[in-house]
Amino acid sequence: MASAQGKTVLVTGAAGGLGKAIAEAFFAAGANVVVCDVHPQRIASVEEEWAKSYAGRFLTQQADVTDEAAVQKLVDAAVAKFGRLDVLVNNAGIMDDFSPVGACSKEKWDRVLNINLNGPFLASKAAIAQFEKQEPAGGVIINIGSNASIHGFKAGVAYTVSKAGVMALTKNTAGFYGDKGIYSIALLLGGMNTNITDAFAQGMHMEMFQKVQASQSPFEPHRHLPVESVAKYCVFLTDKDISPSANGSCIVFNNNWPEA
Asked: Which GO terms label this protein's molecular function in UniProt (predicted)?
């Protein structure tokens, strides 16, 4: 695995699921890790777990990524504890309920776009300000995208638009900041067995879901993308010899589902 020895890495939405796996991969690579999550019970759980193995190398904070002041406070806390910030992984996100545009409530649209797109925007804005002023300057942003970033018929309208926006955010950021040593990369992920599907707890738009399912090969258990594999890839992309050449890349990493 690539080394992240001595780096400070911030992972949003990281007290469970994919985010936690990413955090633990960076621990294994030698990094200090800062995580936030909106759920206080999840934060308490990882604090207890990591205190046994990573004492002094992590910082946890409850934070809502849609709150600009909370995001800035998180970045400031990371720098206060570890001296700098080297990597931001914009992982926090939610799924929608497969509602098409005619059935999507304004409340659902706002919530999904706020977390999935405004969150990465706010975190990137705060991180880049830190990347520019620290010595030596520079940093890496990894945005967690989706099959829905490039396929228009893999989820509901809100999730699809949010993840397409994440890809655009990645490319625009890469274009402006690359020559400043600040690199922006997206991973466009396939299906995973994570807590993002909490959105289905109150049901889903079955007609849309069935049409999406009928338009592609079935998603079977062997198609699940291991969160550990995604986490290893995140570490790899922050390697000093890799991140400059990956700048602006939106990398499909989906266990070939749907088939290429």
From this structure: oxidoreductase activity, acting on the CH-OH group of donors, NAD or NADP as acceptor; quinone binding
pLDDT tens per residue across span 11-52? 999 999 999 999 999 999 999 999 999 999 999 999 999 999
Is 159 a catalytic site residue? Answer: yes
How many angstroms separate the CA atoms of 172 and 230, rounded?
23
* Spatial contact of 121 and 71, defined as CB atoms under 8 Å apart: no
Q: Which of 7, 108, 154, 163 is catalytic?
A: 163
> Is 106 annotated as catalytic?
no
Q: Pick the catalytic residue from 7, 20, 159, 177.
A: 159
Cα angle: 136, vertex 14, 109; to 5 degrees: 105
189 touches 258 (CB < 8 A): no
Instruction: Flag whether the pTM goes above 0.90.
Output: yes
* Domains of the chain listed by start with CATH number: 8-253 (3.40.50.720)
Residue written as token pair 């992590």: 58
Task: Give per-residue pLDDT as tens, 160-199.
Answer: 999 999 999 999 999 999 999 999 999 999 998 775 556 6
